[in-house]
Specification:
The chain is an alpha/beta fold. The chain is built from 16 helices and 21 strands. The longest helix has 22 residues. The site of flavin-adenine dinucleotide (FAD) has 43 residues, from helix 1, helix 5, strand 9 and helix 12.
């Protein structure tokens, strides 16, 4: 078995950034199931939130993040997120990411639910593409081994310690085992679970499914963020219209030309994502339409073409000049707040197993992510993973608990929703008639019954269908079958958590429990 100090699964921002730091400490292998650049990272538009502006501070960023998280953020983790960002941005610049500048200063823009401009970007609205290209070029220039088309299929454990990973070569169909000291899951979220999604095809919850099966704790899965404004043009794949467009003054109107957001909230278009997404759904229902419109025609055309060149060009290439015409939009699945539970060093409850990026649940997002905090989370906690692996603590057998003690003494600040309740996935009575299991049926089920607006009834129905499907999963033999099986497991974790949480909070909204309940200011954790 080939052995490495670090094996990193995934080649988005989290995987590549960690690899570039880890190579200074030991040998590194990256496994990625598509090409190196297949990931969500390259689609990120708005940018990275970081308190660098004159009128900004980590304290203000902390407050905005805590407010968005709706009572479930881990305050110690949010402190770290908001205080340690600038150092990681300096690393990204060193690795070649060309952030936009004006007169030698990095330019900052504002996004919804941020009290001040603090989003740094690259190529206007092509931030993720620049990050992915710069980091992957840098990775190729150093002795990091990268295996593309290589799908991690099982975590190898001995006792409570990681020994390596099993992976499928998707080109040859051969299975191989790789040994390591540290295994870092950077496999992204589960966005392909839903019929309408902004996510890349590779985002199928693999890391969460593998970690769960290996005995790791999975937390906060009921909190899935739906982006309010995704292009809804017939025959065109969902394309994100960045939050920053509303940040720069874009206005939402229903199909009758009425500006509806002020009717729902005083923050209007700058309200948090969940509020804007739900308001749009209500407005679409009211008007019997499958879309609303985003209007930027009152903004100077030059601002639009220079600040949003990517969006401008994409729409123009599909016959829409957004400087003159309205942009048809509707919500779509976007970001998973939950994931593999980690402490503030990216450690899971299994020694040697780490998670970073969207796969991880570090506790910074709580019930709802503040826009542009996820790229920041990937680098801030990615850096801490590598720092942790070089700490003397690692000579000890029980790394996670060793760290937890330290974490408590380091963070006197009281976290919100400290309490976590552990559950196993329940055995449900199988239904005699269910639709056949395939990706479109799974995506429709999740969109219709576990989507933006949920109810106990819709969730219970979905839970039974999913449990029935899980009893007769196809054998995993190739990438599509592995992905489908992983998605079904993630769908169960999301649905069962949403059913347990009898309240509405952040991105989780139930019509039968529309209020937030203090009794539910706690986390739902699943473990095998
Ligand atoms: C359209 C869009 C716009 C966004 N805009 C922003 C923004 O402006 N600011 C912001 O902060 N966030 C934004 N986000 C969110 C952000 O882009 C993601 O949360 C972040 O890029 C996740 O990075 P990651 O490295 O964790 O995962 P990803 O970039 O998704 O990478 C996951 C990697 O894991 C690999 N992988 C998965 N499973 C396996 C397996 N079994 N074996 C091997 N490899 C595997 C994939 O192939 C991929 O390389 C946006 C997301 C989308 C979709």
């Amino acid at each position: 078995m080939n052995h490495y100090d670090y094996i990193i699964v995934g080649s988005g921002i989290a995987g590549l950034y960690i690899a570039l730091l880890a190579i200074k400490q030991g040998s590194v292998l990256i496994l990625t199931k598509g090409s190196i650049e297949d990931c969500n990272t390259k689609y990120a538009q708005g940018g990275i939130a970081v308190a660098m502006g004159k009128d900004d501070s980590p304290e203000l960023h902390f407050k905005d993040t805590m407010a968005a998280g709706d009572g479930l953020c881990d305050a110690a983790a949010v402190r770290i997120l908001t205080e340690e960002g600038a150092e990681c941005i300096a690393d990204l610049i060193k690795f070649g990411v060309p952030f936009d500048t004006l007169d030698g200063e990095i330019t900052l823009t504002r996004e919804a639910a941020h009290t001040t401009p603090r989003i740094i970007h690259a190529g206007g609205d092509a931030t993720g593409e620049h990050i992915e290209i710069s980091l992957s070029q840098k990775v190729r220039s150093v002795p990091i081994k990268v295996l593309e088309d290589c799908l991690a299929s099982e975590i190898l454990i001995e006792g409570n310690r990681v020994k390596g990973v099993k992976a499928l070569d998707c080109r040859t169909g051969l299975m191989e085992e790789y040994g390591c000291q540290f295994l870092i899951l950077a496999t992204g979220g589960t966005g392909r679970l839903f019929k309408y999604t902004t996510n890349s095809d590779v985002v199928t919850g693999d890391g969460i499914a593998l970690a769960f099966e290996a005995g790791a704790e999975i937390s906060d899965m009921e909190f899935f963020q739906f982006h309010p404004t995704v292009l809804r043009l017939p025959g065109v794949a969902p394309f994100l219209i960045s939050e920053a467009v509303r940040g720069e003054g874009g206005i939402l109107e229903n199909v009758d030309g009425y500006r509806f957001m002020p009717d729902y909230t005083a923050e209007a278009e700058l309200a948090p994502r969940d509020i804007v997404a739900r308001s749009i759904v209500y407005e679409m229902r009211k008007t019997g339409s499958d879309r609303v419109f985003l209007d930027v025609t009152h903004l100077p055309p030059r601002l639009i073409t220079t600040r949003f060149p990517h969006i401008y060009r994409f729409c123009r290439d599909h016959g829409l000049d957004i400087t003159k015409g309205l942009i048809p939009v509707a919500p779509a699945a976007h970001y998973l707040m939950g994931g593999v539970k980690t402490n503030t060093w990216g450690e899971t409850n299994i020694s040697g197993l780490f998670a970073a990026g969207e796969t991880a649940c570090t506790g910074v997002h709580g019930a709802n992510r503040l826009a542009s905090n996820s790229l920041l989370e990937s680098v801030v906690f990615g850096k801490r993973v590598v720092e942790r692996t070089t700490s003397p603590c690692h000579s000890e057998e029980d790394i996670p608990s060793c760290h937890r003690e330290e974490q408590v003494s380091q963070s006197p600040e009281q976290s919100e929703g400290d309490e976590a309740i552990s559950y196993s996935l329940p055995d449900r009575h199988p239904l005699s008639h269910v639709p056949p299991l395939n990706l479109p049926n799974l995506q429709s089920l999740m969109w219709d019954k576990v989507g933006i607006i949920r109810s106990g009834e819709s969730l219970a129905k979905a839970a039974s269908i999913l449990a029935t499907w899980q009893r007769s999963l196809p054998q995993s033999i190739d990438r599509p079958s592995y992905e489908l099986n992983n998605l079904v497991l993630c769908a169960r974790l999301i649905t069962e958590a949403a059913l347990l949480r009898e309240e509405s909070r952040g991105a989780h909204f139930r019509t039968d429990f529309p209020e937030t309940s203090s009794a539910w200011q706690r986390h739902i954790v699943f473990k095998t």
